[in-house]
Sequence to fold (282 residues):
Amino acid sequence: MFDVTEFQARCRAAGLALTHQRQVIYQVLMQARGHPCPEVIYEKVRKRIPSISAGTVYKNIKTFLNAGLLCEVTLHHGTMRLETNVQPHHHLVCTGCRAIFDVDSNEVDEVQLRRKPPKGFLVNGYKIEFYGLCPGCRKRQ
Amino acid sequence: MFDVTEFQARCRAAGLALTHQRQVIYQVLMQARGHPCPEVIYEKVRKRIPSISAGTVYKNIKTFLNAGLLCEVTLHHGTMRLETNVQPHHHLVCTGCRAIFDVDSNEVDEVQLRRKPPKGFLVNGYKIEFYGLCPGCRKRQ
DNA sequence: CTACGTGCAAACCATTTGCGACACC
DNA sequence: GGTGTCGCAAATGGTTTGCACGTAG
Fold:
């Protein structure tokens, strides 16, 4: 699951100091189910380091994003949804409670743009979001 | 482009009063290039109705969303990105400047989940987001 | 005339920033 | 020992809310 040695190595590779706070934040991120937002992370981290500040959590999340240790679920502005799964994959989103589930790349067919993208746009990849209702929200309706 | 009569009809159908503010907001939304956030809309509306308040714009955007006159680009929390194109379609997102372009459904292949979604999840549809760099951001790099 | 819509101002929440103190390397 | 990191607290930015007044139906 969480491998300190590997985390150390990755930090060193990125030129980042290996602080206790960072280890805990990363560990919490890895162990978090779903695709937590920074606030949730902050809450969980605070259980282990009560004195930690929100600023530190936000700063380190940004640092991890820059270092490629973390991914943002979408690129749109707003509340971040995070995941340590850096491998390309897709998402299944509940339109009711906005829960997010992972869908492996090999579970869906390859997609290709039939036409050329607009003048000069360079396409690097894509993500698919499937929408629907999770079991809980289905019952509630 | 903007058809007052149709807007009237849609408002009546949804049981909404036809106010001047609403007409201007909707018109601005329709004429807006890209996928504007509420703030941008607010700015543009304010040029025509300087006395309008941000609250009114936000309230009406919510109203339009409920009435199905408007779509949110993503379901994730945070800053809204809006579009009046209610037809299903996909997006091309610039990872540099976060600009969003539309991609018509018939420009990409149909996608199917190869495996069953998690226990009891009911899938209604999907959206594809292509990522890349727009011409402007390509130059800048 | 009455319910719905508007403007205003304050509140809210997530996130960012600046800075002095502290810890990793 | 010096740069990078932390904690704190204040600032910011987007969005929401409550309420008194105004207007569409």
Summary: Chain A touches chain B through 46 residues (CB under 8 Å). Chain A is about 40% helix and 20% strand. The first helix of chain A runs from residue 4 to 14.
